[in-house]
Amino acid sequence: MIKVALALVVLGAAVWLAHLHVAAQSYHPSVRVRLPENVHLVMTHAPVDRHEQCAAITRRFVEPMRRLCTECRIEHARCERTPAPDRGATHYTVRLREMQIAVEGAPERARGVCEEVAVALVRNGAGSAACVFPRPKPGVRDSRPG
Fold it and tell me: Highest mean pLDDT range out of 10-19, 81-90, 136-145?
């Protein structure tokens, strides 16, 4: 009887620890969209606690893209267990409160898309959004206008 009780206590502790492990994990919403002219948008969002929240965030990003840009292709929309690398150092990036959208492509086209996306988000009620320029590589002279 003591062995059975001990086994139940150990099993209960294992279940409790497993629950703590799952509860402590977070989900990182990530969406990659290919636009015409070989430009990509890579949306990453602040981590959330539940997979359902993550899925809802990716849907809120993907559904308007599908409606508004018929030539666009969703390359992935998923909930990552680890955060995506910060692309802001090397790409034009739209920064919002809990989200960033890296714009990958030819620099002049990426800059234009970045600025267009930031303006469109503000116009559509996103609050504050800004296009942030990539940092120049060390030893390379910054030739951007302005």
Answer: 81-90
